[in-house]
Structures are given as structure tokens and as C-alpha cells.
């Protein structure tokens, strides 16, 4: 079952946020469900079709939003005192770094997307409208 899989993950990687998420983490989950997930099929269409410059602004909004939420999550993993958590959290630096490595790709991919949208000449090009 999925609940058993979640329990196994949380135990193996000492991730109590998955079993007992703080309120701010729940807010990020709602943002993911209602803002980020709807973006995926739109972005997939734009990138698979190619040449869709209109994806630049939504991609910048998406990537900065995700990066901002991940900075908070990574800071929580690195600095929070998990000894008071009901579920086992990371205690040693090694355990914190292992858990950090699980969340890190969710930061790196949006940062790569942001870098692409800001630096790729294809997406930076602004068409000037002709005046009559």
C-alpha cells in the first residue's frame, strides 16, 4: 500500500515532514497541487511543440516559486531541531545531508529552467510590433 511505502520512506530517510507535515509544509503541498501540477502539462506541451516563447513568463513564475519553497524546506532540514518531533528526524549531519540530497533535485531543476528562460536567446527575444 501507499501508506506503507510512505512509512518506509520516512523511516529510511528520517523524513518526519512526510508523516507529520508542519503547517507551512502543508501550504507548500497545496501550492504544488493547485499551482505547480497544472503547469506541468502546459509546459510539456510548450517544450515538446518547441518555439513557444509564451512559456517564458509562466516558467519564470513557476521556477522562482518552486525555488523559494525549496529554500525554506532545505533550511528546515539543515537547521531544525528534530529531537522534539513525534517521528524520527535526521540527527547527525550525515542524516541531514542524505535527506537534503533527496530534496535537492527539486531545487536544481527549477533553477535550470529559470536559467534557461533568462539566458537562452530563444526565450529572451522580444518581438517588436509594427505600428501602422
Secondary-structure blueprint:
Blueprint: H1 2-13, H2 16-19, H3 23-49, H4 56-79, H5 93-103, H6 105-119, H7 121-124
Features:
132 residues, mainly alpha, 73% helix
Could you give a quick summary of the protein structure above?
With 132 residues, the protein is mainly α.
- In round numbers, the mean pLDDT is 92
Radius of gyration, CA atoms, in whole angstroms: 19 Å
**Sequence of secondary-structure elements:** HHHHHHH
Largest sheet: none
Q: Choose one word for the global shape.
A: elongated
Secondary-structure-based class equals: mainly alpha
How far apart are the termini?
64 Å
How many helices does DSSP assign? 7
Subcellular location: Rough endoplasmic reticulum membrane
Protein name: Sigma intracellular receptor 2
InterPro entries: EXPERA, Sigma-2_receptor-like, Sigma2_recept
GO cellular component, one term: rough endoplasmic reticulum membrane
Amino acid at each position: 500500500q501507499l501508506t506503507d511505502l510512505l512509512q518506509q520512506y520516512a523511516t529510511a530517510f528520517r523524513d518526519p515532514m512526510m508523516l507529520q507535515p508542519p503547517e507551512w509544509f502543508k501550504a507548500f503541498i497545496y501550492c504544488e497541487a493547485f499551482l505547480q501540477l497544472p503547469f506541468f502539462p502546459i509546459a510539456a506541451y510548450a517544450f515538446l511543440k518547441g518555439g513557444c516563447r509564451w512559456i517564458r513568463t509562466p516558467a519564470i513564475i513557476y521556477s522562482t516559486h518552486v525555488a523559494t519553497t525549496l529554500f525554506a524546506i532545505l533550511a528546515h532540514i539543515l537547521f531544525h531541531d528534530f529531537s522534539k518531533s513525534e517521528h524520527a528526524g535526521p540527527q547527525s549531519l550525515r542524516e541531514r545531508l542524505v535527506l537534503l540530497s533527496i530534496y535537492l533535485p527539486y531545487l536544481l531543476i527549477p533553477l535550470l529552467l529559470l536559467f534557461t528562460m533568462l539566458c537562452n536567446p530563444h526565450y529572451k527575444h522580444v518581438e517588436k510590433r509594427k505600428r501602422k
